[in-house]
Amino acid sequence: MYVAPAASLLEAMRRSPDDPTLGGSLRPRGPIQLALSTRYETGATVISAAGELDILTVSKLNTRLDDVIRRRQGDVVIDLSEAEFIDSMGLHALLNMQRRLFRQARALTVICPPGAVRNAIELARLSESLGVVSSFEDYRLRRASP
């Protein structure tokens, strides 16, 4: 059985931005980061996510979402305007949150402008389920309408 030298593995992980492989084109370069902030609006908790929402960072989001579901009332808004990347684990976390809120007669809205993250949500056919809107103004208009 052949085992690649550690140097080869490290080199494979450090591909250039021009790398034509699928993995090189999907993930942003650099360290994996996710910054979360929470603010409270009338009747809703808004969680803003900036960075990458993937298998390596989803536990951070899940912890915050669990806290919001247990300690706060009202709807939940996830603002992905500053998110750069989302994978299936990130989508799963959002869908799981939507299901938990639905059971409590609460709603989830995801703010996500056009771009890579929005494309991933649309490809997974989750736009309607997650209540995706393009901006906070769209969310306010939706909320104000009967």
List keywords for this structure.
Transcription Regulator spoIIAA, five-stranded mixed beta sheet, alpha/beta, 25% strand, 146 residues, 5 strands
N- and C-termini, Cα separation: 65 Å
DSSP summary, beta strand count:
5
Using the coordinates above, name the CATH class: Alpha Beta
Strand neighbour order, sheet with most strands: 1-2-3-4-5
> What's the domain count?
1
Elements, N to C (H/E): HHEEHEHEHEH
* Helix percentage: 40-55%
Instruction: Report strand %.
Output: 15-25%
Structural class: alpha/beta
Largest sheet: 5 strands, mixed
Low-confidence stretches: 1-17
Q: Give me the number of helical elements.
A: 6
Task: Explain the overall architecture.
The chain has 146 residues and is α/β, with parallel strands linked by helices. It has a single domain, classed as 2-Layer Sandwich (Transcription Regulator spoIIAA). A 5-stranded mixed beta sheet has the order 1-2-3-4-5. The N terminus is likely disordered.
